[in-house]
Amino acid sequence: MEGPFIRIEDTGEVAPLRPEITTVGRGRGVDIRLRDPSVSRLHAEFVRRGPYVYVVDLGLSRNGTRVNGRPIARRVLDDGDVISFGAARCRIGGIPREDLEPEVELRRAAAPELTRREIDVLTSLCRPALSDEAFVSPATAREIADDLVVTEAAVKQHLLRLYQKFRIPEGSNRRTRLANEVVALGLVRPTPVVPQQRGNPPANDPPPRVVNRRAS
């Protein structure tokens, strides 16, 4: 089959993508119909721009869209990527391979614009994940509140808005999923520690640095 296509894993059915936009969902009016009950009537869409294809979650489902297991809002796809709409899994093919520079790869997933306070919350949330520990959980709402000297209720409100901005669906380990997405996007990075000169007292490790990017 020439051009990009989707293979539905449950049925083996292969569906070519339309030249511009291909809609996906459980409703009768979509281009690619998935009958799994976890899929919304209008769940997502594939968009073709020249040789590139990206998938967009339309935000109409509580179960969200994932690419290779990671929740996304919008993501440029590579040949062989597995896209999950709720519990329905598909694999994309027919996309020409391209060598991407690291900077371009970093922007593959679109990052929302963040306020100053949201950056502070994400920095505090992800700080444990950027430590030298072999395995740590992200900070709790109480720990973030103590770190930022605000109320726990205020932190929870910020987290709710961040879940919406990053399209993190409801469920268990929501803070962990948010932290994973933020770190994977490169929005939070550890700040290099400057070596101390002999005779100077050791300084406290600086906090992680958050890079705010507009969605590309």
TrEMBL record:
<dbReference type="InterPro" id="IPR016032">
    <property type="entry name" value="Sig_transdc_resp-reg_C-effctor"/>
</dbReference>
<dbReference type="InterPro" id="IPR036388">
    <property type="entry name" value="WH-like_DNA-bd_sf"/>
</dbReference>
<protein>
    <submittedName>
        <fullName>FHA domain-containing protein</fullName>
    </submittedName>
</protein>
<keyword id="KW-0597">Phosphoprotein</keyword>
<dbReference type="Pfam" id="PF00498">
    <property type="entry name" value="FHA"/>
</dbReference>
<dbReference type="GO" id="GO:0003677">
    <property type="term" value="F:DNA binding"/>
</dbReference>
<feature type="domain" description="FHA">
    <location>
        <begin position="22"/>
        <end position="72"/>
    </location>
</feature>
<dbReference type="InterPro" id="IPR000253">
    <property type="entry name" value="FHA_dom"/>
</dbReference>
<dbReference type="GO" id="GO:0006355">
    <property type="term" value="P:regulation of DNA-templated transcription"/>
</dbReference>
<dbReference type="InterPro" id="IPR050923">
    <property type="entry name" value="Cell_Proc_Reg/RNA_Proc"/>
</dbReference>
<dbReference type="InterPro" id="IPR008984">
    <property type="entry name" value="SMAD_FHA_dom_sf"/>
</dbReference>
<feature type="region of interest" description="Disordered">
    <location>
        <begin position="192"/>
        <end position="216"/>
    </location>
</feature>
